[in-house]
Description:
The longest helix is centred in the middle third of the chain and has 15 residues, at 39-53. The chain has helices at residues 3-14, 39-53, 70-82. It is mainly α. It has one domain (3-82): ACP-like (Non-ribosomal Peptide Synthetase Peptidyl Carrier Protein, Chain A), CATH 1.10.1200.10.
Amino acid sequence: xxxxxxxxxxxxxxxxxxxRADTFTLETPLLGAIPELDSMAVVALITSMEERFGFIVDDxxxxxxxxxxxxxxxxxxxxxxxx
Length: 83
């Protein structure tokens, strides 16, 4: 499974980016850089990732650092998949 591709697909779908996520790299900033990514969108992203990847995210695992960039979000997902 290509985790980056799946994460970009989730971002595009949940944030209604209409394909913009296809141009994102691991360095693309997220929180504070993409207007569509507000607190409600973070909750929707987490729910979508839980469903797509089959893991559970506890409240104490969530902080802004995971959503700083595409790369940090991919790293977060990869970390959840090995636990």
